[in-house]
Design brief:
The protein is α+β, with helices and mostly antiparallel strands. The chain has six helices and eleven strands. It has two domains: 2-79, Crispr-associated protein, domain 1 (Alpha-Beta Plaits); 89-228, Alpha-Beta Plaits, CATH 3.30.70. Helix content is 27%, strand content 34%. Strands 5, 8, 9, 10 and 11 form a five-stranded antiparallel sheet that branches. A four-stranded antiparallel sheet has the order 2-3-1-4, with helices on one face. Strand 2 (45-52) and strand 3 form a beta hairpin. Helix 1 crosses helix 2 (26-34) and helix 3 crosses helix 4. It is globular and about 55 Å long. 27% of the residues are buried.
């Protein structure tokens, strides 16, 4: 695996696609970054969009090195081979799309997949919760999603501090025209988490990092950044 940092250079030529990507359109970002893997038919990378006072950049985790096929960007790439041991304490930063499957009303039927935060909001309103309490309940539902025993076991970690929710966004983006006279609308949520975790099973954590956490991976979710806790 390879971890890359990609930054537009001064004078970066802004096409309609890059303009949308720079403005935060997750689908355009995905299409733009895929140009760095032009020889690949299937998406085999995770990415994360960052906007700060220093400008915007993308972090990309991929199974192969990006190809310098897009002019006007600076690209730095290094192998991603974390050496982890049982008991290591890591600080993490994750942008994820929390969803869950509801139990089907009828046995043998497939349940409905829901946005965890919007579902929590719906339940809170049904229960008559005050408006100023609903956001706190939504954030708690997001934390519960990340720290469920099933997820911790699958990831090979133990969350040793309650995850902090630093950002929550609802996204609506449109795919390019499919040639049938209409565009496809994509709607999803993203939540930024940060905190501390302890490594329980290194190989599981590395697999989870490489595969991504949760859904909407092609929309900039799922990439967990880690570092040694100071």
């Amino acid at each position: 695996m390879f971890l890359s940092r990609i930054k537009p250079e001064p004078g970066f030529v802004v096409s309609q696609l890059t303009e949308r990507a720079n403005a935060g359109d997750a689908y355009a970002q995905h299409q733009l970054l895929w140009q760095l893997f032009a020889s690949h038919k299937n998406r085999d990378f995770l990415f994360r969009y960052e906007q700060s006072a220093q400008g915007l950049c993308y972090y990309v985790l991929s199974s192969s090195e990006p190809e310098q096929t897009v002019s006007g960007i600076s690209l730095s790439c290094k192998p991603f081979k974390p050496k982890l041991s049982v008991g290591d304490v890591l600080a993490y930063n994750l942008r994820a799309n929390p969803t869950r499957m509801l139990k089907a009303a009828q046995e043998g039927k497939r349940g409905q997949r829901v946005d965890v935060l919007m579902h929590a909001k719906h339940l809170a309103r049904e229960a008559g919760e005050a408006s100023d309490e609903i956001e706190a309940l939504q954030y708690q539902a997001a934390r519960d999603w990340l720290t469920s025993s099933h997820r911790q076991n699958a990831m090979g970690v133990e969350f040793i501090s309650e995850p902090e929710v630093t950002e929550y966004q609802q996204h609506q983006v449109r795919k390019a025209s499919n040639g049938k006279g209409h565009n496809g609308l994509i709607q999803f949520s993203s939540v930024n988490f940060q905190g501390l975790l302890r490594v329980v099973e290194p190989s599981r954590l590395i697999d989870s990092l490489n595969q991504g956490i949760g859904r909407a991976k092609s929309m900039g979710c799922g990439l967990m950044m880690i570092r040694r806790a100071s």
